[in-house]
Amino acid sequence: DQQVKQNSPSLSVQEGRISILNCDYTNSMFDYFLWYKKYPAEGPTFLISISSIKDKNEDGRFTVFLNKSAKHLSLHIVPSQPGDSAVYFCAASANSGAGSYQLTFGKGTKLSVIP
Amino acid sequence: DGGITQSPKYLFRKEGQNVTLSCEQNLNHDAMYWYRQDPGQGLRLIYYSQIVNDFQKGDIAEGYSVSREKKESFPLTVTSAQKNPTAFYLCASSIGSRYGYTFGSGTRLTVV
Q1: Average pLDDT over chain B, rounded to an integer
Q2: How many CB pairs lie under 8 A apart between chains A and B?
Q3: Which of B42, B43, B81, B99 could bridge across to B35 with cysteines, CB 3.0–4.6 Å?
Q4: What one-character DSSP code corresponds to residue B73?
Q5: How far apart are the CA of A13 and the nearest CA of chain B, in angstroms?
Q6: CA-to-CA distance for A32 and B72, rounded, in angstroms?
Q7: What residue ranges in chain B does DSSP mark as E strands?
Q8: Is residue B12 within 8 Å of residue B97, measured between CB atoms?
Q9: What is the DSSP letter of B17?
Q10: How far apart are the first and last CA of chain A?
């Protein structure tokens, strides 16, 4: 059973427009969420994160929104640039209190920014 | 510079052979992880280790084995029991999930 779902395998956006990547989760114990960016044949790199005590976190062109009641988060990229073309993974973790450090990842969304 | 190193970047294996993928980190992270990436499958957890000399199976551990004899090293062996080993393998380390993972650059394993 997938606990973190990225229902859009791919997304195409014009350069300069907004990219919105969505992520849904089912485990109500998740309390910290992260977005990773991955280029082909490379490891994912951390992009932005948000704690469940917040509903928004912004870092430059990237903003993550969290709707706890809907168990939904989204990543907004404004304006989108061709270099943003990559696979974006949503990840979540739960504070088990037992020293568990596991992240649960979604399947990823491939973003293509068209010049 | 601190980081996590995976080697080799590309690896070819004949059917029936075991092969070991290397993962080394100098970040002083306690936890280390192995993931497998297949097209359309995202990142699937193979094994993880929170401390030296201890490790746990992830979601797809069958056909794989690991060791954690040193804090810096977490090698993954893909055994002949793994029926579909061709994939991109990622190693990661962490000081805690609140800080996310640092990933290596991956190893592409191909069975020939």
Answers
A1: 91
A2: 61
A3: B43
A4: B
A5: 20
A6: 26
A7: 4-7, 10-13, 19-25, 31-38, 42-51, 54-57, 64-66, 76-78, 87-94, 102-103, 107-111
A8: no
A9: -
A10: 38
Cβ pair B88:A41 closer than 8 A: yes
Q: Which of residues 3-62 of B touch A (CB under 8 A)?
A: 4, 6, 30-31, 33, 35, 40-43, 45, 48, 50
Return d(Cα A76, Cα A13) in angstroms, integer: 12
pLDDT in tens, chain A (115 residues): 789 999 999 999 999 999 999 999 999 989 899 999 999 889 999 999 999 999 999 999 999 999 999 999 999 999 999 999 999 999 998 765 555 567 889 999 999 999 9
* Residue in chain B lying closest to A39 (CA): B105
